[in-house]
Amino acid sequence: MTRIIGILGAMAQEIDEVKAMLDNKCVVQMANREFVKGKINGIDCVVAFSKWGKVAASITATLLLQEFAVTELFFIGTAGALADGLKVGDIVISKRLVQHDLDARPMISRFELPLLNRIYVDSDPKLTELAGKAVSNLIDTGVEHIVGGKAMREFSLDPTLHFGDIASGDQFINSVEKRNEILGLLPDVKCVEMEGAAVAQVCIEFGVPFTVIRTISDTADHNARIDFNKFIIEVANAYSKAIVGEIMRIL
Predict the structure, then answer these.
(1) I need a surface site. Which of 85, 89, 208, 220 has the fewest CB within 10 A?
(2) Distance (Å) of CA 245 to CA 27, 113, 162, 238
(3) Are 178 and 148 in contact (CB under 8 A)?
């Protein structure tokens, strides 16, 4: 089987530099989405913007799997920190994913995926390990050459790598009350975003290995970073390019 790597970005700006890495690019328009095919380090890849939210991201992931026959999927983007100790610029790689806004009680337990008899979806161990190695390599060599000294200072970047649970829901979490509510119910969750667990469900139902890589952009409370767009452009985009490049180098 030919290896075809799918790369989803949670924000369009987060994958601009990843698209630029592709050789022999071919753009395919489908379902109001742009899929860019090409090669990175000689490996076939398809890169796409997931669009925001669980439904939109699920559609994009399904198209990647069905129409482009990707054999592995990496989802990259930003997230809000829930766990204590996480700071802006840290990177979280998923071990498990859960939909924090899924609640079909009393028919089934809270957070349980209907008809799948599970709450959590496990990331592929090999891809998670591979992503962790790539991120560790970048952190070990320092990220100033990736984002530049100005961004390092402005965002006080001193990144560390974390593995753990990631929660997804169709909400932007920016209050202490909601943060504490999620942590009270799902105490092992490291960070929160809007797409990863839905994409994980698609991948597990299709039998395609995946992992999710998230850069912490804010603390998911009243102190959520105001200049989010600047962080995406100056930090998250550069992180994405560097992480994907390193993954492709060591594959």
Answers:
(1) 85
(2) 20, 34, 20, 11
(3) no
Q: Is the peptide bond before 106 cis (omega within 30 degrees of 0)?
A: yes
Q: Do 204 and 115 form a contact (C-beta atoms < 8 A)?
A: no
Q: Which tens digits make up the pLDDT trace of 230-251?
A: 899 999 999 999 999 999 999 8
Residue 9: predicted pLDDT: 95
CA end-to-end span of the chain, whole Å? 16
Q: How far is CA 251 from the centre of its chain?
A: 19
Catalytic residues: 14, 218
The bridge status of strand 23-30 relative to strand 121-122 is unpaired
